[in-house]
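[Solved] Which block belongs to which protein?

Original post:
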Amino acid sequence: MKHKTSNAYELDLSEIVFDLTRSGLDAGQAERAVSLYRDFLATIAAHPAAAVVPTKLIDKAWHAHMCRPKKYHQDCMLAFGEIIDHTPGVTGTAEYEAAYAATRKLAPFGESMPECAYANDDMAGADCFRKEPGEDQEDPLATKAA
């Protein structure tokens, strides 16, 4: 994966804050979710080969961002030069647990994550991760070796 220098901290995510407040988060929670989401995006940029697990709170911001597909596409292209894929339904796998442990070490918010990915906490792992395209042979974006 070839990343541009990440502009995650420069993205205008005010619409995402608004969407999160409309969905039930108070303004403080929405601002925190988006701030952590920026750190999540910056972690992806800094460690492009790592599978990275968002927290439950970060995943709310990620989903809100993806629900604005044009903006999500534009922001990903600006920050990374490609779309950042969201892989759901991965909890309970060794790959997920390894990615969660790595995220705790790599991400600026890692120390705020509980040791157990499955804790009942907004900073525990969401049921998804960002996995580099092409890692999975069944990934339709995987490039075939020549």
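(Second protein starts here: sequence line, then its structure tokens.)
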Amino acid sequence: MATIYEERYAYHPEDFKSYGTEKIRKEFLVEKLMEEGNVRLVYSSIERYIVGGAVPTDVALLLETIDPLKAEYFCQRREVGVINVAGPGSISVDGTEFKMNYKDAIYIGKGSKEVLLKSDDAKNPAHFYINSAPAHKEYPTKHVTMGDANVLHMGALETSNERNINQLLINGVVETCQLQMGMTELKTGSVWNTMPPHQHSRRNEVYFYFDVPEGQAVCHFMGQPQETRHIWMKNEQAVISPEWSIHSAAGTSNYIFIWGMAGENLDYTDMDVIQPQELR
């Protein structure tokens, strides 16, 4: 097992205007998250957010601390959210094991010392998608299934954006300090997510796209509303959105994405909506 990580830094929107395709992809796209036998992490200075992935096979993987945290263990000052996007597995938190089926989520509170990630079958491993943010208070670990989620039905087929927003690790479902996560599933024939788009200057947001069929892609839009850019994304890739950026996408087929965010408050509706005709 190896823990592979990188650090990324904050960005000014005026600087972003001069970024070309290669620079945008380097700074905001997380191309490789899922690698068998390893934990891969990106530590962003935007809200001190960590996005990562773990694919255990025949042995369990430890969510271990990394040097930028200057911590004895990963959750010493952090909370963690994990969602399984592949084969069945389990997560053990300080000796208590939680079964993690496809689309199951778990909140792991500050102070949890040992987090072990396992797959039931090495030939059909779990793919654990990981988000983490600093925490000021200890809240209990909680396993959350899709049946526990608060579901919002949004959009319409006529506007190609009919979707269910499954709020999994969110205020009202589980207690957290600042971390929120959920999963949005598009209905057949709909390709747009988060349309109309929005910004929330009090929070950052990270999108992770999965169940993107082979040979298909998702075009993710970011940047300020009057100065937008795009990134073409493949299956099981993530994109980091600063607080000044919109976050929206259209795919060449149906797909699912996980949204994660952290920041000043836990109010899901705290957003500034931008109408499509305002975009440039």
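Accepted answer:
You had them paired correctly. Confirming on the second one: The helical segments are 13-16, 21-28.
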